[in-house]
Amino acid sequence: MPESQRQNQKNQTRKHIIDVALNQFAKDGLTVTRTSDIARAAKVSHGTVFVHFPTRDILLDSVIEEFGMRITNRLHELVNDNCGMKEVLEAHLRGISEYEAFYTRLVSEGRLLNESSRNSLIMIQSAVSFHIIQVAEREMKACKIRSLPLDLMFNTWVGLIHYYLINGDLFAPGGSVIKRYGKQLIEHYLDLITL
User: Please, are residues 21 and 53 in contact by the beta-carbon 8 Å criterion?
Assistant: First the structure.
């Protein structure tokens, strides 16, 4: 059954609120951004936000889930069955760079979020880890990289990226950590794991 014009408009408004909220949370922080800030930035009434998202937590969960879908879909697009470790790491950073400010907030404020938001972050990391581990297993078998525990391999990569993002004001004041250090971080990580 085709979507009615009214339903289409509601879906577009919901999507617009999520897009604006993603930017607002990135700018002001996940824990302090108010729904009234998002409504003002989206140019909708405060009540409209609550029609689509009955609570602030539901809105934040929806934004994190949308971000997770975007970043994992981007990773799926960029990674193919024959890519190597360097390519999967480049794809991961490319996906992060598209939403670097939001991802940095998510990583730095994650422990302060409600359980469902933290679970969404875990699901995002699981999807990323799936791709990296898949390539790592293949490259370990081919003796291209060291045989290491897969969880440690993934956590070392993510820890390195998170450290630079969280301290972005030191590493790339006013700019993108990924653009400034991405290539160097990949090279350093590959030096650690390559035979």
Answer: no
- What's the predicted TM-score (pTM) here? 0.91
CB 36 within 8 A of CB 53: no
User: Please, are residues 163 and 111 in contact by the beta-carbon 8 Å criterion?
Assistant: no
Q: Which two tokens stand for residue 6?
A: 């009214």
pLDDT by 10-residue block (mean), the chain, 195 residues:
82 97 97 97 96 96 94 82 90 93 96 93 92 93 96 96 97 96 98 95
Which structure tokens are listed for 112?
Answer: 């302060």
Q: Could you give the count of Cα atoms lying within 13 Å of 101 in the half-sphere of its Cβ?
A: 12
Alpha carbon 88 to chain centroid distance?
Answer: 15
Strand partners, 145: 194
Residues 6+ apart with CB under 8 A from 153: 132, 133, 136, 193
- Pairwise CA distance, residues 131 & 80, whole Å: 10
